[in-house]
Amino acid sequence: MRTHRIIASIWTFAILTAGASAVAAGEKPEWQSLFDGKTLDGWEQLNGTAKYDVQEGMIVGTTVLGSPNSFLCTKKDYGNFILELDFKVDEGLNSGIQIRSQSLKEYKNSRVHGYQVEIDPAQKKLYSGTPPNLRANGEVVPAGTEPRRWTGGIYDEARRGWLHDLTRNEAARKAFKPGQWNHFRIEAIGDSIRTWINGVPAASIVDSMTPNGFIALQVHSTKEKEPMQVRWKNIRIQDLGRNEPKPDE
């Protein structure tokens, strides 16, 4: 019996090692679509009452006055992955892509929380907050002269707040295209999370608080009476497997 267990352990280790080597060698899994273009199969809505429906091959999220933040979440959890998608958002509507996120009854009564790749489209309201944005040469952007434009930054929803804003990344701030389709690339591998907006590197963190969780599309709460919308399409993922925490974690 012991011999069989030893052989089984060696075989399991060999399989895992071979898989890790394949990923390291660039032999990544095939892309999988998270949205079939017709239905919301594989997704479920949590928290708020914003409306999510499918229109012309897109997922469309529409605000509802008085609703808290709403999330359309994958029913499957993901740990290590590469995620790509296109989005377009109305002026003034904050949104984001949740990754490795959770909804637990014991945490704020099931409030969705976790890493969010920010969609921060406000263009008409000029930013005068702290910290200030910086030019590529390090100069401070004068208050009230440009929008905040932190789309692609990494925020910790309902937990720690900003983990990596774009105050020091002028190229990424300028890469966002207001009122047009934009493209996200998000890589979460081990403790590393990196983002790109329209091909421009945006944010990068090393953080191990939550190794696995669902992906979600956020419609932020709003005080505006007129409905606003955010649209997503071409949502695809390379699933690289669970992110196993290190033994000392």
Task: Write structural notes for this entry.
- The structure is a single chain.
- The chain is mainly beta and 249 residues long.
- The protein folds into two domains: 1-29; 31-239, Jelly Rolls.
- It contains two helices and 15 strands.
- It has helices at 2-24, 170-175; strands spanning 32-33, 43-47, 51-55, 58-62, 70-74, 81-89, 95-102, 113-119, 154-157, 161-164, 182-189, 192-197, 200-206, 214-219, 229-239.
- Strands 1, 3, 4, 6, 11, 12, 13 and 15 form an eight-stranded antiparallel sheet that branches.
- The longest helix is centred in the N-terminal third of the chain and has 23 residues, at 2-24.
User: What sort of overall outline do the alpha carbons produce when their principal axes are compared?
Assistant: globular
The percentage helix is 10-25%
Query: How many separate helices?
Result: 2
> What is the number of beta strands?
15
What string gives the helices and strands in order? HEEEEEEEEEEHEEEEE
Please identify the top-level CATH class of the largest domain. Mainly Beta
Low-pLDDT runs: 1-22
The secondary structure category is mainly beta
Major sheet description: 8 strands, antiparallel
What is the domain total for the residues? 2
**SS strand fraction:** 35-45%
